[in-house]
Design a protein that fits this description.
By secondary structure, this protein is mainly α. It is about 60% helix and about 5% strand.
């Protein structure tokens, strides 16, 4: 080294705190060159204080490289060596600028940078403390880093439980913290937590709306991240890849996933993680256990199968006073006992033995900690708020609590961390799922029952307010993760039934329908077998199962569940009981979804009148029935009565629940559709825009009700001639609906149908045809050929085919749609009249004018009688009838029709003015 420095023209020295560590013996290096000041170029690559630097050096270090990106660091280095420099890239010949390459060498837009100050922690950071005992895994961390920098941007670490996936992610986050401006850690075991955690990050980044709701703010965050770099999102324990569709951030930042599921390999770059290499095991045990001999460490690692979780617990016990040899003897005995009894299920025998030793040892010294550990084993594997324990402290039977101990439970939890049995911080604790499983398996029946009773107390006392209110959804998300993790045992406790039912309702209201079905099914099956088919909790679980099923578009199965529930409630509770009326309301909704509008109307009217008599006119459930009846009347195109009911329901809902409550927005949505049906497009547009804005803010961009509002507004925009905006909104809504609900869901098919009509209006007939044909095929398969929605698609496709000149196929579809609509809806239903009108136009195009004129006359007569002279359909039929009469040689009759139409339009304009 000395010879090399003597030969050097200049010496560039990169100084860090570690360089000056006395154990590194660097004193002679820097003293040998500091005298040659003209040949020394000293640079700092991390923040150094005067106290860190020897006095003789502090005066000569003249340039900091930390906190700079690659280009800035190169410029600073060259400036230090040669003085100020010009551009690093040779200028090109004057002319148009070449495209800027923002991601050189495939680094995905994020290049390494030198460490920054402020403790090297990004400003936006929520990562737990670094594991001070982390050892080894250098190759795996390098592979993670290479994967993220290599343009992939998302890396999944997968492997069995207990092998240290979370610890590698934690070490990566801390080690490379200075490379990011934002690092956000999410415990992703329960997918319904993801939107809540994204919403929290949106708040930290300043892009959230305070009252925007979790889903809206989460989507806002994902859009924001697409345009930013230097962020890291860690999704820890993300075990179901399908649950994360559309939820993995994209853009120039990085995503690190840990999972037990190898299925991530089909979606992202993945790394399979195994147990420690023996060298890592030896390094870990040597660092953790003072004075351990190499052969002892090797034997212990062999006994524990190199499993990191087991070694952490072994080190915790040995560090607290047990000898290595004694520990190995106990481990051998307990493992042999486990294997003699058939072996443990779902986890390695050495780990089970290690947990047993650690808990036994801790219980001897810290019985209060052992009580809390046993209790925590019966909660879920997600974070457990310590506040839950504080609230329930006086009600817990398995934990001894001194009423005067103001340090409980924080002080009692610390031994869990010392023995490697849990992670504990100021606000939460978390126990590894394998540790929980082992502790539950070791508990006898009486102890398990007592612990589950206490868990019931904790969860019931943590129950948030009304899940109808979106502001409570973040609290429900945290609680539901523990309820669903232990739902079978939780369902058997009467005290938790109300909380579990509310959790299922929360999942429905927040749009998490598959999770709602899973929970409601488990509750229904458990309670039906233990409480009976007619028990009220069983029937409530069935009610929510039916609701979630029809929301997913499975109307036939939903109807079966709802009709059975209604029949039982009528028999057990009577016709007018509020629970019976809830099931009656559900049946009316499913009948409407099946296109059975007359049956739905009868059920809606009966339920509305009963609720008004039993609950009162302003009760929320009465208002829901009023809205549902108005919607059914709208589908029957009885617009005047629908308008009267809709306006009254909206006014009452605003007064009772406020303008932003989801029920109020539901009423506003329905009323706007009625206004559109009446041809009052300007009023409809104004109300639809207001409702969509509120739903986006309250429920989120991708909530099913928000998507319905967006699709409805797109329809009105098309009707007022704003085709470009209608198309943009229609395409966005269709993409979201397919992603959120699936391509075959009725809501997604509604969006596809609407977009096809818009494309037709824009003259893009080929694209409209493709979408029409696909939608018709799906609607026939999902809903049936006679469903009103399928008939809408058949009608739309016929119109498109006529525009393409395929008149024969258009006529066939028109005739089929008209025949089915007459049979299903009746001769005078507006949709039937539209099919008749479309067929007449097709016949006219085929030069079959007498038949076309006769059909147009009949259609006009029925439209005037059903809808009135001023309805847009009546006016449209009148104009086309006049055209066909003129082409048939009857110009005087045609002119009389046009004069009459013009007179009515003048009167209508005068009335408006």
């Amino acid at each position: 080294m000395s010879d090399a420095m003597r030969r050097a023209t200049a010496v560039v020295a990169l100084f860090s705190n570690q360089y000056f560590d006395r154990t590194r013996w660097t004193h002679e290096e820097w003293t040998s060159i500091v005298a040659r000041r003209e040949r020394l170029i000293p640079l700092a690559i991390e923040p150094l204080t005067v106290a860190d630097i020897p006095d003789i050096l502090s005066a000569v270090i003249r340039k900091d490289l930390h906190g700079l990106d690659e280009q800035a660091a190169i410029s600073a280095l060259l400036n230090a060596v040669d003085g100020p420099t010009g551009p690093l890239v040779k200028p090109g010949f004057p002319g148009p600028s070449a495209p800027v390459r923002t991601s050189p060498d495939g680094f995905g837009g994020q290049r390494p940078r030198l460490p920054s100050g402020a403790g090297l922690i990004p400003q936006v950071w929520n990562v737990r403390d670094r594991n001070p005992h982390f050892t080894g895994r250098e190759n795996q961390i390098a592979l993670v880093r290479d994967g993220l920098l290599g343009g992939r941007r998302t890396v999944a670490l997968h492997g069995l439980g207990g092998i240290g996936k979370t610890q590698i992610a934690l070490e990566y986050a801390h080690r490379f913290a200075s490379q990011y401006d934002t690092v956000w850690w999410i415990d992703a075991e329960q997918a319904d937590q993801i939107l809540v955690r994204y919403s929290e990050l949106a708040g930290r980044l300043g892009v959230a709306k305070p009252d925007g709701g979790a889903e809206h703010n989460a989507r806002t965050l994902l859009e924001h991240l697409r345009t930013q770099d230097r962020w890291l999102i860690v999704l820890d324990n993300a075990d179901d890849p399908q649950s994360f569709e559309g939820l993995i951030p994209s853009g120039p930042g990085h995503v690190l996933i840990t999972s037990r599921n190898p299925g991530w390999s089909d979606r992202v770059h993945d790394l399979n993680l195994g147990v420690f290499a023996r060298s890592d095991s030896l390094a870990y045990l040597t660092a953790r256990i003072a004075g351990v001999a190499p052969e002892q460490a090797d034997g212990l690692a062999d006994d524990l199968g190199d499993l990191p979780l087991a070694m952490a617990q072994a080190a915790g016990v040995i560090s607290n006073g047990m000898t290595v040899d004694r520990y190995r003897l106990l481990l051998t005995e307990k493992t042999a006992t486990l294997m003699a009894n058939g072996g443990p299920h779902g986890y390695p025998a050495p780990l089970a033995a290690a947990v047993d030793i650690a808990t036994t040892r801790m219980a001897a010294d810290w019985p209060a900690a052992a009580d809390l550990l046993r209790l925590g084993a019966f909660l879920g594997p997600d974070l457990i708020p310590i506040a839950w324990l504080e609230v329930a402290r006086d009600q817990l039977a398995t934990v001894a609590v001194d009423s005067d101990d103001f340090m409980w439970p924080q002080a009692a939890l610390q031994p869990l961390a010392r023995y490697g049995l849990a992670r504990v911080d100021h606000e939460t604790l978390q126990i590894h799922r394998l540790t929980q499983a082992i502790l539950r398996d070791r508990s006898n029946e009486a102890d398990a029952a007592a612990a589950e009773d206490d868990v019931t107390v904790i969860l019931s006392m943590a129950t948030p307010p009304d899940p109808d209110i979106p502001a409570t959804w973040s609290q429900w998300a945290a609680l539901t993760s523990h309820l669903t993790a232990r739902q079978y045992s939780a369902a058997r406790h009467p005290r938790l039934r109300k909380t579990l039912i509310q959790a299922a309702y929360y999942l429905i209201r927040s749009g998490q329908l598959r999770a709602a079905i899973e929970l409601a099914t488990a509750l229904f099956q458990t309670w039906r077998s233990s409480l009976g088919d007619d028990d009220q909790d069983t029937l409530t679980a069935a009610q929510y199962l039916g609701q979630a099923t029809i929301e997913l578009g499975n109307y036939d199965e939903g109807r079966r569940i709802i009709e059975d529930t209604l029949g039982r409630r009528r028999r057990v509770l009577g016709e007018d009981h509020p629970e019976t009326l809830r099931s009656a309301n559900d049946l009316a909704i499913v009948l409407h979804g099946l296109g059975k509008y007359d049956e739905a109307r009868q059920m809606d009217e009966d339920t509305f009148h009963r609720r008004r008599g039993v609950l009162g006119e302003d009760h929320p459930e009465t208002l829901r029935s009023a809205h549902n009846l108005a919607a059914t009347l709208d589908s029957l195109e009885e617009f005047d009565e629908a308008l009267r009911m809709g306006e009254d329901a909206l006014e009452r809902a605003r007064r009772a629940r406020g303008s932003d409550h989801p029920d109020t927005l539901h009423c506003a949505y329905g009323l706007a559709i009625t206004l559109h049906g009446l041809g009052k497009y300007d009023e409809a547009r104004k109300m639809k825009e207001d409702t969509l804005g509120r739903r986006r803010r309250v429920l989120g961009e991708d909530h099913p009700e928000t998507l319905r509002s967006a699709n409805s507004l797109a329809n009105t925009l098309r009707s007022v001639g704003e085709l470009g905006e209608a198309r943009r909104m229609g395409e966005d809504t269709l993409e979201r609906a397919r992603r959120v609900r699936g391509a075959d869901h009725p809501d997604a098919l509604d969006s596809a149908h609407s977009l096809a009509i818009t494309l037709h209006s824009l003259g893009e007939l080929g694209e409209a045809r493709r979408l029409d044909e696909d939608t018709l095929d799906r609607r026939r398969r999902v809903l049936g050929a006679d469903h009103p929605d399928a008939l809408d698609s058949a009608h739309s496709l016929a119109v498109t085919l006529r525009g393409l000149g395929e008149l024969g196929e258009a006529r066939r579809l028109d005739e089929e749609a008209l025949d089915r609509r007459r049979r299903v809806l009746g001769e005078d239903h507006p949709d039937t009249l539209r099919s008749a009108y479309s067929l007449a136009i097709t016949l006219g195009s085929l030069r079959q004018r007498p038949t076309a004129v006769q059909l147009l006359k009949d259609t006009r007569m029925r439209s005037r009688r059903s809808l009135g002279n001023d309805h847009p359909l009546t006016e449209q039929v009148t104009r086309d009838l006049a055209r066909e009469l003129t082409a048939s040689g009857k110009p005087h009759e045609a002119q009389r029709l046009l004069n009459s139409l013009k007179t009515r339009q003048v009167r209508k304009r005068r009335r408006k003015s």
